[in-house]
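Technical annex B. To support the medicinal chemistry partners, we prepared a structural model of the target in complex with iron/sulfur cluster, based solely on the information shown next.
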Amino acid sequence: MSKEITFILEPDSGKLTAEVSGISSDALAELRDSLGISQSVNCGKPLQRNFVEAPMSPDFNSDDNQFIWLYRVYHNSVVDGPGRRSVVQVSGCSIRCPGCYVPDTHDRHNGKLVSVSSVVREVLSRSAEHDGVTILGGEPFDQAGPVAELVSILNRFNQQILVYSGNTLGTLIARHDPCVDYILTHIDLLIDGPFEQFHHAKTGEYLGSANQKLYELKTG
Ligand code: SF4
């Protein structure tokens, strides 16, 4: 097995993630000592789920009139959900949690308005490399219509989907919005709740603050 250490620096939060493979436990302990306070995150190895592999040029019927405010798409994240993930980060957030570490995403105009189909193409072009897709923000449920469309198409390609929301699950259900309900019934995982800066320490995996909860919504 080859020995490898990859460092990933997140410019938004200043977090440094080290991915290691094939190194001895002594070397790992030395690395931990050198980096200071650290926290183990999930393993980024493929989860070996039975994906329907997406074709290189996915052919799907999508309403090209559906547009979404997008901040960015990035790949190979091992901190935004289980396994290795492609991440769709939308722009625009009406919640504005104090201490939010992605304030640049609050104004939707810091992103750009793009077609949902172009986002799908970008995500599916890397489907052989990832275990799932995470949709975060910003606040995805501020754009429930386009996000529902995105979820609908990704489901056709058997992508495991996790959505982060600054709203609680109860608040979302109470909206009685068909697009919100569609998302909640067609995604695998939801992490809900606003970021609370005074509950930032000792969070579970993938959570920004201890009040947030991870729900498994789709079991079939
Ligand atoms: S919901 Fe998310 S993006 Fe919006 S303010 Fe809270 S932490 Fe920031």
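Notes passed to the chemistry partners:
The two ends are 36 Å apart (CA to CA).
The longest helix spans residues 144-156.
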